[in-house]
Amino acid sequence: MSIKLRLLLFYLNNFKKDDLTLPAAQTRKIQTKELPLFLKICDYAPIELAAIKDEQITMRDGATIPIRMYHPSKKEQLPVIVYFHGGGFVQRDIESHDLVCRRVAKENEAVVVSVGYRLAPEFKFPIPHQDCYDATVWVSENANRLGANAAELTVMGDSAGGNLATVVSILARDNNGPAIKNQVLIYPTTDARLTHPSIDQFGKGYFLTKPLMQWFVDHYKNTEADITNPLMSPYLTEDLSNLPDAFVFTAAFDPLKDEGEAYAKRLKEAGNRVIFKEYPNVIHGFFNMPKISKECLEAHQAIKQFLNYAPVLVA
């Protein structure tokens, strides 16, 4: 683990502890206020792109949600990546992942659509999942006007966003569309039961804690039965066959690493093309930390390779 990452953990563990007694809305306000400092510490200046555009799109219940579209160039028929941010279904937003989406667009020469799905506890399970599926349908149907090719559609997300990406892939299969070519799952949460060994092994002192994960689950679920619903815990999905090619990666010091690896194994056993990688010496959230972890940019290069060569890669 790098000195920079150790220093970051020292600061987080000693001076920036989560107050889980606060309402979710208040924690979001605090995070919004602290976001510029976090980004300054962990990431570089924003990458310049050809165009960035915000829009509102309509969901199945008539509500609207924001999306942000990142265009790396003026070329047409580019691949398109639908990105779902992490944050336990309760926190974070398009702004918190703006720098990440800029980099994903630039590295992959792809149109990236970042989805501002509605958050719990105001909008509990399964509304965020429905929003993300509906947004993916919208992207597929509007690909031409976005300068994108619907046949080259990838869903991608980190943490809770990784959960959303894989569930959208399952819903697309079960609803006969839209066609999704690839799924990139970045240290995804796949099992809301919180029972995998790494939850306890790394659930204290490594940024993402077990109490915080339980807080997320408690805010997101409507009932106890939701925890074992395959849409909330895709690891428990009975049939995982005929899903998009998958790149799943985890972090060595992440409480979610066991369930990420277990889900990748289940995908592979179901006959899907799957690439799995565990990045050493890093923690949950490292994909947002290129200044702190060299593995962040390595992961971006691995995604680029996967998206370019996924049809011939079988792990």
Terminal-residue CA separation:
27 Å
Instruction: Give the topology string: H per helix, E per strand.
Output: HHEEEHEHEHEHHEHEH
CATH topology: Rossmann fold
> What's the tally of helices?
9
Structural class: alpha/beta
Largest sheet: 8 strands, mixed
CATH class placement: Alpha Beta
Backbone CA Rg: 18 Å
Model description:
There is one protein chain. With 315 residues, the protein is of the alpha/beta class. It starts with a helix and ends in a 6-residue tail after the last helix. The protein is globular. The chain has nine helices and eight strands. The longest helix has 19 residues. Helices cover 37% and strands 18% of the residues. Strands 1-2-4-3-5-6-7-8 form an eight-stranded mixed β-sheet, with helices on both faces. β3, α3 and β4 form a beta-alpha-beta unit. The mean pLDDT is 96. It has a single domain, classed as Rossmann fold, CATH 3.40.50. α3 packs across α9 and α4 packs across α5.
